[in-house]
Design brief:
This protein has six helices and 20 strands. Helix 2 packs antiparallel against helix 3. Strands 11, 12, 13, 14, 15, 16, 17, 18, 19 and 20 form a ten-stranded mixed beta sheet that branches. The chain has helices spanning about 1-55, 60-75, 170-180, 195-200, 275-280, 340-345; strands at about 85, 90, 100, 105-110, 110, 115, 125-135, 140-150, 155-160, 165-170, 215-220, 225-235, 235-240, 245-250, 255-265, 285-290, 295-300, 305-315, 320-330, 335-340. The chain is α+β, with helices and mostly antiparallel strands and about 350 residues long.
Length: about 350
């Protein structure tokens, strides 16, 4: 009987100890849970504090102008001409999108997000777009950049596909300079480094077999022609961008015609599929005209005249001004005169020069 009493006491003591441990464990779990909640709350509070701190001066006209100047310089280095969203009229891309209208169905890395035009950058969207720039590479392809602020952080998104999916740009210059502009710092545009093999292929006087498909190398434009030029006509202001081996014509309504100049080494075939023609839409069979001109034809063009460009000079208001003369057809007559600035193009829109052979 005495032994039974002792055993009962031991069992009772064990139960009390287990109960106590269970109670302590429960209390410990509650404390841990509360700590987690406190940490989460503290983190959100800090995030809100950062956003609030930055929301006072996120984007303004000075930063926007700075970005516009940078994009012009950067585009020239990249041999690309970008159209800026003016805050009113949608940008129509060659790939079929209209921005900022189509931001409402945009995805980023395949994920649904809230993305919208927000001039001040202080909206509640995942991506508040403060600037949009588009470059139409051809009649069906484009590169569009959206400069955004996400939780107050500057992020550059790019869309190069045919759909409406975006991703963060990998271009180091764009990323770093957008941050600099956002922070009120200076920007710097560097020309991309050219490898020795690329430099060799750029010579129009040497055969470059590596290019393939009948291309004997690039044709080089006269140095006096290179740059951005403007011409004012009845349809509005057109733009001409000429680099070492490429020529881009931009119409008054933003339509872009881009050409890469190659030296053709094989005869032009007569039987070519439409898909093959489209794949070589930007290729041109080109050649130099003397020391100051370039002529070019479509890569598979068999009939009709080509296009020609000449470096020229005229005296305007007592100053010698460089010009580029552009014409198309079987002769060397001039259809358009391009000036080095929009102001001059406007000022001289009705001018006729005695030493230029005009078509009309």
């Amino acid at each position: 009987m005495k032994k039974l009493t002792i055993i009962s006491s031991v069992i009772l003591s064990s139960l009390l100890i287990l109960t106590g441990c269970g109670s302590n464990s429960s209390k410990k779990s509650n404390v841990t849970s509360k700590v987690k909640v406190v940490k989460q709350s503290s983190s959100k509070k800090n995030q809100k504090g950062v956003a609030k701190k930055k929301s006072g001066s996120l984007w303004n006209n000075d930063k926007d102008s700075h970005l516009e100047d940078f994009m012009k310089q950067w585009g020239e280095v990249m041999n690309q001409t970008y159209t800026k969203y003016d805050g009113t009229n949608n940008i129509q891309t060659a790939s079929g999108m209209n921005y900022p209208q189509d931001f409402n169905s945009a995805t980023v890395n395949g994920q649904n997000v809230s993305m919208a035009w927000d001039k001040k950058g202080t909206g509640k969207n995942d991506y508040n777009v403060v600037a949009i720039y588009n470059y139409n590479k051809s009649s069906s392809s484009s590169i569009t950049y959206a400069f955004t602020l996400a939780d107050g952080e500057p992020i550059v998104l790019v869309n190069e596909g045919s759909g409406n999916n975006w991703s963060e740009t990998k271009n180091k210059s764009l990323k770093e300079n957008f941050v600099n502009i956002f922070d009120g710092k200076a920007t710097h545009v560097e020309k991309p480094k050219v490898s020795s093999s690329s430099a060799q292929s750029s010579s129009s006087t040497k055969s470059t077999e590596g290019l393939g498909e009948g291309r004997g190398g690039y044709v080089t434009t006269p140095e006096a022609m290179r740059g951005t030029w403007y011409s004012k006509g009845e349809s509005g202001m057109t733009k001409l961008v000429i680099s070492e081996h490429e020529i881009t014509l931009i119409s008054a309504d933003g339509e872009t015609n881009h050409a890469v100049l190659y030296k053709r080494t094989k005869d032009t075939p007569s039987d070519v599929s439409e898909s093959e023609r489209q794949s070589k839409e930007e290729w041109r069979s080109a050649g130099n005209i003397g020391t100051n001109g370039i002529s070019m034809r479509g890569w598979y063009q068999l009939q009709g005249g080509g296009e020609h460009f000449f470096a020229h000079e005229e005296e305007i208001d007592g100053q010698k001004v460089p010009l580029v003369l552009y014409g198309f057809g079987a002769n060397d007559l001039t259809d358009y005169v391009y000036y080095p600035s929009e102001d001059l193009a406007n000022q001289q829109s009705d001018a006729k020069y005695d030493d230029i052979n005009y078509k009309f």
